[in-house]
Amino acid sequence: MKKLEKFSSRAIPLPIDDIDTDQIIPARFLKSVTKDGFGDNLFRDWRYDKAGKPVKDFVLNDPKWDGNILVAGKNFGCGSSREHAAWALGDYGFKVVISSFFADIFKNNALNNGILPIQVSDASLHKLFDVLLATPETQLHIDLENQRFSVDGHDDLTATFEINPYKKMCLINGYDDIDFLLSIKEDIEGFEKARLFH
Amino acid sequence: MAKKTLFDKVWDSHVVKRIPDGPQVVYIDKHLIHEVTSPQAFYGLEARKLPLFRPDRIVATADHNVPTKDQHLPIKEELSRIQVSKLSENCEKFGVELYGLGHPYQGIVHIIGPELGITQPGMTMVCGDSHTSTHGAFGTVAFGIGTSEVEQVMATQCILQTKPKTMRITVDGEMGKGVLAKDLILHIIAEISASGATGYFVEYAGSAIRALSMEARMTVCNMSIEMGARGGMIAPDETTYAYMKGREFAPKGTEWDRYLAYWKTLPTDDGATFDKEMHFDATIMRPMVTYGTNPGMGVAVDAAVPKAADIVGASVSSFDKSLAYMGLKSGESLNGKTIQNVFIGSCTNSRIEDLRLVADFVKGKTKADHVKAYIIPGSKQVEKQAREEGLNIILEAAGFELREPGCSACLGMNEDKIPAGEYCVSTSNRNFEGRQGPGARTILASPLTAAASAIAGKVTDIREWLN
Question: 9-28 in B: which are within 8 Å (CB) of A?
Fold first, then answer.
């Protein structure tokens, strides 16, 4: 897994609630047997029309928007457990998703792929949408070590965010869970020996 | 002794290790895999030069990509064929039991686990599929995981997870005629919203839940994820044991007695506390339909589509976008809306009881000419039983066709898709934009509502057809 370091970027707003993983990557694009190339079909049915032409005013097609931070409405990533959603976001170039609420499985999938989900209050999220819509060039700064994010020119939006300390350590160092689990193999075997059922 | 919930008892007995300030290491008893979310995990194992830690704890099937006609022929669509054959190749190479196409046990992963007795009370189960919550109907801690987690479980039989909070949803009272388990869960999701149970593991309790058959309980637990819950569970009872006894992989003889004694210790202790409790009255529940693009957007079939302002926390723009996609307006009723498709199937409603209900209802009636109907059994075993009971003949006489098992039109990943702009009354679990095919408009409902709508050619209130 790639390390996630301190960085600054512009952000792309997608002010829609309940964006499910079928929108992030529709099921018909899940047929690959590798993890690569999913970014081409990220938000496929919002991004392209039926003839495969880019939908002009969709944020990913509009040159006004740029950056590797996605800012999305509440309950982002609900629905299917498909990790392809996280692969598609990562492959497209997103390193951070900001929302006021994330679905559970998506959050784990994102963290397992070096993508940081940052949860902010509903009020902050709406303010952030307003700021971005008014001034698309606004820079955001992400500091995982100090669990802090800030927005140029809007000190009131500066906030700290929560992240599980173990997951933070993994993101900063680029470790994954398998490395850890393999290191406690003896505990797992001991647990198996002591079981009475199943 | 501390009073514990069903969830706590099962979860705590599977914790191998607790990481300070971190997730817990949870041992997984059964790991179900399918063709879509496993190839990258197998690839990851190979890249790390790791074997499967416990191959005998994994069961595989092919379901998402498979056609539901002519399964004896090669899959026409190339990418689907490659994905399904990759699964066979990986299972062969790594020594995993595979119930692939052509096997008498093949079927939707969440249908075959219970019907084979693989799913058992007190177990932990995972699968790279969010509807793994289905297995919770047996008092199992079962939840969907991503592919990195599939790889973790393959490599170590364990998964790192933060322990979820607990919620109990108690449903008391008797449901009215024509109201099914599907209506019960759609009613609950409409109340709680598509995100209202995020962070929780739900236990369903109360007299209305106790009265449900195992298959109906699976329908309820299946849709737990649609309100954001990681999983849903129902305490095992005599209904559970009667369903399980004699199934292929269920304990036998003295082992059965030993397990039964253990299973009886699992139900939530009197006085155990939950992080959240909710109560519902089953007597007021009506047949449900969805009008929007997430399963929380549901109403009783005879009620009007609400306005954004009627829904707590709804954003007007997201709500309006959803109605525009569906071609519906606030204030109109879905009852009487002309439809073009009906889909009866999916891990939510494709078991033998569902097919019996549908066959019993359509017997002597005729499907509306303009409706294309898909009736898809959940597994080869369900299909076999339906044919043995003659359900296929009843269905055919009414203008329907019983096809072969798979996920089918639930997710638009195989040949069965709903055309853009058309309505489909569907017994599946998700009405997301494009879920059943690009531009498809899904109306979630029970198998009875779906069957009656196929006959009527429009969305209909099943209660008007009974008596």
Answer: 16-17, 19, 21-23, 25, 27
